[in-house]
Design goal:
heterodimer; A: alpha+beta; Aldehyde Oxidoreductase, domain 4; Aldehyde Oxidoreductase, domain 3; 3 domains; 7-stranded mixed β-sheet; 30 strands; B: alpha+beta; Uridine Diphospho-n-acetylenolpyruvylglucosamine Reductase, domain 2; Uridine Diphospho-n-acetylenolpyruvylglucosamine Reductase, domain 3; Enolase-like, domain 1; 5-stranded antiparallel β-sheet; 4-stranded antiparallel β-sheet; 14 strands; globular
């Protein structure tokens, strides 16, 4: 066969991509699943439920820390309509619902460690019956001394939440000579920053529907990572995994918690309930259950000590991050890794000393959430930069220009930045778009009650999993006789549009329009285990697998086309669904004809694409090395207007630039930037799941405030910078998470510009602004 | 789909089609909860705060009780007028009623405005009901109807505590009325919460008054909280302001009086100290609005 080798194809495609010639890359295509969502078609798990279904409700712990002396379910069982009450006694396999560290039981059995712990689940014919019978489950507790402050929890004499100490994970970065760095400094600036519990508040709560099928069980649910849910349920049931089939339903928002442990809980409880009763069971958390029992963004206490020369050059940065992990480890043991590696911000600093701790407390547990430790770390790092600039009496922009990462710089872990470091371009773009210098000058001369301010924030964001696990993906393509292409993968769509992006990549390689594609629903029975859909990695990692699958498919088709149109293989062109020989564009056949011919020639049009990212190397003790294969960069500028009498403020304009390497679909990229920005605005301005002595005060959307359309700035200007990375397809970098990071520090710094004082805790409520002005 | 939270077999829903029938049914079933469109009751049922056995659904009376009219010098608003309907009322578009526009602009979401009624807002009797301070500042009365006849109660006397109203078990609130203060008056309302809409206020305040030739001839001020946990008038502040020139000095004095008059508490939304600061700032802004300034 004289077809081109895959490597030659790849090079050809890469060159085309660089020339901007690839068919659909960089095009603002419609998403494959947009219409049904806009129409509100019945597609979610709750839409699929038949009449004979039973409903489950959770009995949560009454205490943040207590011994369970006894559980009695008999009264609840006798309540009308109740069919079963599940407790730890009903778990045939392992009573465990954990991702990395096996510290969390599905049902609490000897003690409870937070008010989010699940003690029992009532299965009833109607949701209200289950709800009412919850009150009849009698649990006898013996309260233990709790600890809620993570700093207190780190002390040796603090109440122990698990058998070992309360520090679950300690991550270090040790670069250069920190003491020497401080000695070289002209100024040393120290500050402490605090962040809050943020709830992801996806429109759809954690939901799973289980149908008993003889020896097997089928689970349909809302989740990010069906294969992990499959393994978790199998473990609880004590079954081999092939008896558990998990289908990811259309998922109404996820944002991270649905890659963590909560989907294990709902799937396992629905499965157990279905097995015990022989009926389908729906376990769909109420909003209250979800906000108490699922993972949230970790609150953080972050201290910075920075050494700086009078000319603005940073000499040393010492950072301690303490994350309030709540009662369980969750994916939080990886969150602290990302937080610690990004703790110093996107700057070149010769001497670094970081300590990151994830700590157990008796608050409800925290875990994976869009940004994964970066929002806390960058809020502190970028706030600290403005505090340093104030001390030096320097424009914060100039301080950043002196120290920021650029090609040739080294990060805090010593990783060398190559030509794909687009941070200078991002900063320059937002400075120009916002007219920063002029406004800074203008706002410095204000008086009166209403004051404006302008603030900057920047970031680097290590792409995909890096130190968080093996970064691989499978994408399966098959072509039907009529020319339609199926794309199947265990990677999931939950609102980002990334799976459409995979089709866009495959379509570009194959040369057929995206309309030919359908995306199969992820199903553990059909699709390969393909790692989690997290870390914004679908395009950067899955995209390479899609490209691989499409290349393999094309290699099968080119010889067929060559014979069919009598053309040398290397001259066969497939463009927009038409096949022709180079130089004979007037004579074409259709994609359908080509596919039909391949079928007749008995060629199997079925390929599996695979990609595994190069492994990342860093030292566990010092953190030094290259923990990520490539980085996304971003910069934002916020402009605020503050009423100095009341502290009320609004964000007038927000300018944001991201270096995404290569925008596969610019419309989707902007969608992610807008969405992340608004979620980040909520984090900055209002969102806080308030815990009081371990109890959630506001577990509902009436008292937990997420931004409405009236709370966002009139202008969010997005700028896309493309400095191609080494890993992603066509140079693409990740984009979904970083936009959530920048609003908090940018707004905080803009308020500081307006009122002269910095607010070092989130959310920045108008009350905090008021008190800062009055202090 | 999930099943509804209430089973029809467990709850009696009385659905009269006229006021007369309603009053009779209520007289026979004084334990029934009265609902119009249930926008206040429904979330409370859902949260398990209340579990009514009987509901008297008076939404069928919309034809009788959805009016806004001027009768002699009285503005009369039927209890079943929804917030959306109120928005379209021409009488309330006069400058002296602009406080209504201010309330409506920040009232819930369009979906809630389409079903929430002014009667329901008043009967909910909590500090988060934004119409109450405005109606207090208009010196409103409520009309209570029963098989025994009708009686009028000042709104101030009607709301006696958080979610406590001066209503006999067989009475329905059918109308809210207040005297048209006349030309030269104006009104304004402001609400501050942790976001711009769909929000329970941290504080709110309504002012009705008349400023002529720079002098405050008359003023009435009410806020969601003054001393207790229900909306009240700030009468000391009103007395201080009456007859004085509307200027910086008067406002400074009024702020002092108001800050002595209020007694506020902390919750997770805001501290008492900050609530007070906001009330004082609002007082100034609303008084200047009376004079026609933004």
């Amino acid at each position: 066969m004289n077809a081109q080798t895959a490597e030659e194809f790849l090079m050809e495609i890469q060159k085309k991509a660089e020339r901007g010639e690839l068919l659909y890359i960089g095009k603002e295509l419609r998403r494959i699943d947009d219409l049904e969502k806009v129409l509100g078609s019945p597609i979610y798990t709750n839409d699929l439920i038949p009449r004979n279904t039973l409903y489950a409700r959770l009995v949560l712990s009454r205490y943040p820390h207590a011994i369970i002396k006894n559980i009695s379910v008999s009264k609840a069982l006798n309540y009308p309509g109740v069919r079963y009450v599940l407790t730890y006694k009903d778990v045939p396999g392992l009573n465990e619902s954990s991702t990395i560290i096996p510290d969390r039981p599905l049902f609490a059995f000897n003690k409870v460690r937070s008010t989010g712990d699940i003690v029992a689940a009532v299965i009833a014919e109607k949701p209200n019956r289950a709800q009412e019978a919850k009150e009849l489950v009698e649990v006898e507790y013996e309260p233990l001394k709790p600890v809620f402050d993570p700093i207190e929890a780190m002390k040796p004499d603090a109440p122990k939440i698990h058998d070992d100490g309360n520090i679950v994970k300690h991550v270090k970065v040790r670069k250069g000579d920190i003491e020497k760095g401080f000695q070289e400094a002209d100024y040393i600036i120290e500050n402490t920053f605090r962040t809050q519990h943020q709830d992801a508040a996806p429109m759809e709560t954690e939901t799973a529907f289980a149908v008993p099928r003889g020896e097997k069980i089928l689970i349909i649910g809302s989740m990010q990572t069906p294969h992990h849910v499959q393994a978790a349920v199998a473990k609880v049931l004590g079954w081999p995994i092939d008896r558990v089939e998990v289908i990811q339903a259309v998922t109404g928002g996820a944002f991270g918690p649905k890659s963590d442990e909560p989907p294990y809980d709902v799937a396992s409880i629905a499965a157990l309930g279905a097995i015990k009763t022989g009926k389908p069971v729906l376990m769909s958390m109420t909003r209250e259950e979800s906000m108490i029992a699922h993972t949230k963004r970790h609150p953080a206490i972050i201290t910075h000590k920075t050494g700086v020369k009078a000319n603005g050059k940073l000499t040393a940065s010492k950072v301690q991050i303490v994350l309030d992990g709540g009662a369980y480890a969750s994916l939080g043991v990886l969150v602290i890794v990302r937080a610690t590696f990004h703790a110093n911000g996107p700057y070149e600093i010769p001497n670094v000393w970081n300590d990151g701790y994830k700590v157990y407390t008796n608050n409800t547990y925290t875990g994976s959430f869009r940004g994964f430790g970066a929002p806390q770390a960058i809020f502190a790092a970028e706030s600290q930069m403005d505090e340093i600039a104030k001390k030096l009496n320097m424009d914060p922009l100039d301080l950043r220009l002196i120290n920021m990462l650029r090609p040739g710089s080294r990060t805090s872990t010593g990783q060398l930045m190559d030509e794909s470091c687009g941070l200078p371009e991002c900063l320059d773009a937002v400075v120009k778009a916002s007219d920063y210098r002029k406004k800074k000058e203008l706002y410095s001369k204000q008086d009166g009650k209403i004051r404006r301010g302008i603030g900057i924030a920047m970031l680097h964001h290590g792409n995909a999993l890096g130190p968080e696990g093996n970064d691989y993906a499978y994408v399966h393509l098959s072509v039907e006789k009529n020319g339609k292409v199926h794309l199947g993968t265990g990677l999931t769509e939950f609102g980002t549009g990334a799976i459409s992006g995979l089709a866009q990549i495959a379509a570009s390689v194959l040369g057929v329009p995206i309309d030919y594609f359908t995306i199969d629903r992820p199903n553990t029975l059909i699709h390969h285990e393909t790692g989690p859909t997290v870390a914004s990695r679908v395009i950067a990692i899955g995209g390479n697998a899609a490209r691989d699958a499409a290349l393999k498919l094309k290699q099968k088709l080119l010889p067929v086309a060559s014979k069919l149109i009598n053309c040398k293989v290397e001259d066969v062109q497939i463009v927009d669904g038409y096949v022709y020989c180079k130089g004979k564009e007037h004579k074409t056949i259709s994609w359908e004809e080509l596919v039909k011919e391949a079928y007749e020639a008995n060629i199997e049009l079925n390929t599996l694409g695979y990609y595994m990212a190069p492994s990342c190397k860093w030292d566990e003790e010092t953190g030094l090395g290259s923990p990520y294969n490539q980085y996304t960069f971003g910069a934002a500028i916020a402009e605020v207007e503050v009423d100095t009498e009341t502290g009320l403020y609004k964000v007038l304009n927000y300018y944001v630039a991201f270096d995404v390497g290569r925008a596969i679909n610019p419309k989707s990229v902007r969608g992610q930037i807008y969405g992340g920005t608004v979620q980040g605005l909520g984090y900055a301005m209002m969102e806080e799941l308030v815990h009081k002595e371990g109890y959630v005060v506001n577990p509902n959307l009436k008292d937990y405030y997420i931004p409405t359309s009236l709370d966002i700035p009139e202008q969010i200007q997005t700028i896309i910078i493309e400095k191609q990375g080494s890993m992603g397809p066509f140079g693409a970098k990740i984009v979904a998470e970083p936009p959530v990071v920048l609003p908090a520090p940018a707004i905080r710094n803009a308020i500081m510009d307006a009122i002269g004082k910095g607010i070092n805790s989130l959310p920045i409520t108008s009350e905090k602004v008021y008190k800062a002005i009055k202090s | 789909m999930e099943q509804p939270l209430l089973n029809r077999s467990e709850i009696v829903v009385l659905q009269p089609s006229s006021l007369k029938e309603s009053l009779k049914l209520l007289n026979e079933n004084p334990d029934a909860e009265i609902i119009a469109n249930a926008s206040d009751l429904w979330p409370r049922i859902r949260n398990g705060e209340v579990k009514p056995k009987k509901l008297l659904d008076i939404s069928g009376l919309a034809g009788e009780l959805s009016y806004v009219k001027k009768d002699e010098n009285l503005i009369k608003i039927g209890a079943l007028v929804t917030v959306s309907q109120l928005e379209g009322e021409s009488i309330l578009k006069e400058k002296r009623f602009s406080g209504f526009k201010d309330v409506i602009a920040k009232f819930g979401s369009p979906q809630i405005r389409n079903v929430a009624t002014i009667g329901g807002n008043v009967c909910a009797a909590s500090s988060s009901e934004d119409f109450i301070p405005l109606l207090l500042a208009f010196n409103a009365k409520v009309k209570l109807s029963s098989v025994d006849g009708e009686r009028y109660v000042n709104l101030e006397k009607f709301i006696i505590g958080k979610r406590k109203i001066n209503r006999r078990p067989n009475e329905i609130l059918t109308e809210i009325s207040f005297e048209d203060p006349g030309e030269g008056y104006s009104s304004a309302f402001e609400k501050i919460g942790r976001r711009n809409t769909l929000i329970i206020n941290i504080v709110n305040m309504a002012v009705v008054g008349k400023v002529k030739d720079g002098k405050i001839e008359d003023v009435r001020i009410a806020a969601n909280r003054i001393k207790g946990k229900i909306p009240e008038r700030a009468k000391n502040t009103e007395e201080f302001l009456k007859g004085k020139a509307l200027n910086e000095e008067t406002i400074a004095g009024a702020k002092k009086v108001l800050s002595e008059e209020v007694s506020l508490t902390d919750d997770f939304r805001a501290s008492a100290e900050y609530r007070k600061a906001l009330l004082l700032a609002m007082l100034e802004r609303l008084l200047f609005k009376l004079r026609g300034e933004q």
